[in-house]
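USER: My hope is that you can spare some time for a protein that puzzles me. I am handing you a single protein, as its sequence and its fold in C-alpha cell form. Walk me, if you will, through where the backbone shape changes along the chain. The protein I mean follows directly.
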Amino acid sequence: MKLAEAESTMQKTVEATQRAFNTIRTGRANASLLDKVLVDYYGSPTPLKSVANISTPDASTILIQPYERNTLNIIEKAISLSDVGLTPSNDGSVIRLNIPPLTSDRRKEFVKTAAKYAEEGRVAIRNIRRDALDSIRKQEKASEISKDESKDQQDKLQKLTNEYIAKIDASLAEKEKDITTV
C-alpha cells in the first residue's frame, strides 16, 4: 500500500464518518436523517431518496413526496420500522415528519452516538495506517527500499494519520455543538 493510496482511503473514511454523523438528529429538520431508510420497492430494498422527493419546508418538518402515489403506504411503513424515531403523518399525497425538540437526555444519547461513530472512524484510520506500515516494512525487508526511505515513509504515514484523525475530531466537535445547541 502506497502513501497516496493510504491517504485516499483515509479521506474516504472521514467522508463515511461524516455521513454517519449526518444521520443523527440535531433538533432541526435535515433530509439526511432518512439516508439509511430503505423502502421495499417492488420486492427490493431501495433507498428512500430513490423513490421520493425529500424536502425541508421549515426547521421542524421533513416533507416526503413519492414519485409514485401507490408507494405512499410502503414509505410510511418503512419510516415507522426504521430507527429514525419519527412518526410519519400521511395526508394522501405526501408524508410529513415533524421533528420534535430534543430533551437533554436525548441530546446526551445523540452525543454518545456521535462519539461512537467518531471512534469507529479513528479505528478505521488506524487500521489503514497498520496495513500501510506492514507494506512499508515488507518493502524494506525485501530490500526494495532503504532503511532511510522506510523511516521517511513511516513518518509521513504517521503525519497523515494524525491529520485525518484530527479531521474526524473536528467533525465530532462540530456535530456535538449542533446537537447540544438548543
Notes: The mean pLDDT is 88. The CA atoms of residues 69 and 77 lie 14 Å apart. The first helix runs from residue 3 to 22. The two ends are 45 Å apart (CA to CA).
